[in-house]
Design a protein that fits this description.
Chain C: Belongs to the TRAPP small subunits family. BET3 subfamily. Chain C: InterPro entries: NO_sig/Golgi_transp_ligand-bd, TRAPP_component, TRAPPC6/Trs33. Chain C: Pfam families: TRAPP. The complex is a heterotrimer of chains A (187), B (143) and C (175). With 187 residues, chain A is of the alpha+beta class. Chain A contains five helices and five strands; from the N terminus they run H-E-H-H-H-E-E-H-E-E. Chain A has a single domain, classed as Muramoyl-pentapeptide Carboxypeptidase, domain 2, CATH 3.30.1380.20. In chain A, strands 2-3-5-4 form a four-stranded antiparallel β-sheet, with helices on one face. Chain A is globular and about 50 Å long. Chain B is an alpha+beta fold and 143 residues long. Chain B has one domain: Beta-Lactamase. Chain B contains three helices and five strands. Chain B has a five-stranded antiparallel β-sheet with strand order 2-1-5-4-3. In chain B, helix 2 runs antiparallel to helix 3. Chain B is globular. Chain C has a single domain, classed as Trafficking protein particle complex subunit 3 (Muramoyl-pentapeptide Carboxypeptidase, domain 2), CATH 3.30.1380. Classes of the chains: A alpha+beta (187), B alpha+beta (143), C alpha+beta (175). Chains in contact: A-B, A-C, B-C. Chains B and C meet through helix 2 of B and helix 2 of C.
Chain lengths: 187, 143, 175
């Protein structure tokens, strides 16, 4: 059973985790993207790899999140989305996202980020306009949600690197396995 | 008024050059910038005369001509910053402050993962930021 | 204090980068993977040295620059300094970190041993972990080389992890 202590606030969560210099993180990610573009040549393939990296990271971060946040299982997709936006983003990136643009069925929503530490200093060159620079983030969301039994498709609809006014990713719930616990059987 | 600024790499390769004057004296300015680079090399290679300020990034007045004064700044990474002004009376603190902001803008520009070290800085936001810094130079002190 | 993010974000992208290059891209060519990981570190070190030397006078000699790497630079990156600096006074410097953060994270993180290796025997698993660790170290080696190169000191950097979790970085200055 999850502990019955109330969930921590986003700020309390962020201050409770080990933190590192954001510049090191931002520049490291940037250097990885740059190197992938050199090695893989196809921008589409770079997008895919960034998403895959994010997915793998997401599947691990969810454990750390559940362990530190005292969040018990969320009842539905809506509650899960709110938790990720308010607590998840804050705990890991130190920023909060807004959940918005819900569809009528409550299975598709948007995460909107106005402040995104991933892109500090980044300016996309004209030669890689097809690059989804922040694909690692959408991958993380997809990976993390899959670990709590929610299969999703995540796509970028707004990107400040392309001149939009915010970052917005569209998260569509495609399949939910309701009976499964967020923990694996052998835990 | 600042009429020209330049960033020059450690092999005297131009990284950024921008003039801020309507007058058609680009050639003259380039010449002034060029001569100033020689002054920097000379100072760094023969440091005795400037012993107290030996390793300070701010190099002060490099090259006074009839119409211009050129100030310089040399980073730890051997990148040279130059500023050419028509002002007769430039406060030391203003010049230092200018270079600190100019250097900070440069550091952010080369932190772009797509910037290639040693290549010219193409960033639009860098250009805009430098223009702002140039326009605010000495404001409130001398008009 | 500047902006911060959770350490697990940095660990995550570094681990994923290492496993992508060693597994998905260049599984059969570890020397190629090592070169790419080092190159990524080099870019980061090059950029960081520009940032962190911004408000300081120029270094007068190699030793001063190396000391900067050991103290201020390392502190910005890892919130602590290099524990021990040795030199042979002939261009070789050994920077020892008694408990290098990225190594403790790797050994604590079981998921690094990649899911498809879980069925194999423990000895093999240990092998994989050691390999991953040695590949991972090309990243900080690249950071150090990038930083020193940008400060006008061309060099080669290698890592010695024979004494985990301590790690020594050997800097050989090219003359």
């Amino acid at each position: 059973m999850p502990p019955l202590t109330p969930p921590k606030s986003g700020d309390a969560l962020f201050s409770s985790v080990e933190r590192v210099n954001a510049e090191l993180f931002t520049l490291t990610y940037g250097a990885i993207v740059r190197q992938l573009l050199t090695d893989l040549e196809e921008v589409e393939e770079v997008n895919k790899q960034l998403d895959q990296m994010g997915y793998n990271i997401g599947t691990r971060l969810v454990d750390e999140f559940l362990a530190k946040s005292n969040v018990s299982r969320c009842v539905d997709f809506k509650e899960t989305a709110d938790t990720i936006a308010k607590l998840g983003f804050k705990m890991f990136l130190g920023v909060t996202a807004t959940v918005t643009n819900w569809d009528a069925e409550g299975t598709t929503c948007s995460f909107v980020l106005e402040d995104n530490p991933l892109v500090d200093f980044v300016e996309l060159p004209d030669t890689c306009q097809g690059l989804q620079y922040c694909n690692v983030l959408s991958g993380v969301i997809r990976g993390a949600l899959e670990m709590v039994s929610m299969k999703t498709e995540v796509t970028w609809v707004r990107d400040m690197l392309r001149g939009d006014d915010a970052y917005e990713m569209r998260v569509k719930l495609t399949k939910q396995v309701p009976e499964e616990y967020p923990y694996k059987d052998d835990d | 008024m600042i009429v020209c600024v330049a960033v020059v790499g450690h092999q005297n390769n131009p990284l950024y050059l921008q003039s801020f004057t309507e007058a058609d004296d680009a050639l003259k300015l380039h010449h002034v910038v060029h001569c100033s680079l020689d002054v920097i090399d000379e100072r760094v290679n023969n440091p005795k005369r400037n012993a107290p300020t030996l390793n300070e990034t701010f190099l002060g007045l490099l090259y006074p001509t009839e119409n211009y004064k050129v100030y310089g700044y040399l980073t730890n990474t051997k990148v040279k910053f130059l500023m050419v002004t028509t002002d007769l009376d430039v406060k030391d603190a203003d010049a230092r402050n200018f270079f600190r902001k100019f250097h900070a803008a440069y550091v952010d520009a080369v932190s772009n993962p797509f910037h290639v070290p040693g290549k010219k800085i193409a960033s639009r936001s860098f250009g805009a930021r430098v223009s702002t810094i140039v326009k605010s130079f000495g404001s409130g002190t001398t008009v | 204090m500047g902006r911060e993010v959770a350490g697990s974000c940095l660990d995550g992208v570094v681990m994923e980068m290492v496993s992508a290059y060693c597994g998905r891209f260049y599984a059969a060519k570890p020397e190629l993977a090592a070169g790419r990981i080092e190159a990524i570190g080099f870019q980061v070190g090059h950029q960081l040295s520009e940032r962190y030397t911004m408000d300081r006078p120029r270094f007068t000699d190699h030793l001063e620059a190396i000391k900067f790497i050991c103290k201020d630079f390392w502190s910005e990156l890892f919130k602590k300094q290099i524990d021990n600096l040795k030199t042979n006074h002939r261009g070789t410097f050994v920077l020892q970190d008694n408990c290098f953060p990225w190594l403790t994270h790797v050994s604590l993180d079981p998921s690094m041993e990649s899911t498809d290796a879980t069925e194999s025997d423990p000895a093999l698993l240990g092998d994989t972990a050691a390999q991953t660790t040695s590949m991972l170290l090309y990243f900080p080696c690249g950071i150090i080389r990038g930083a020193l190169t940008n400060l006008g000191i061309p060099c080669a950097v290698s890592a010695d992890m024979s004494n985990l979790p301590a790690c020594s970085f050997v800097v050989r200055i090219k003359t």
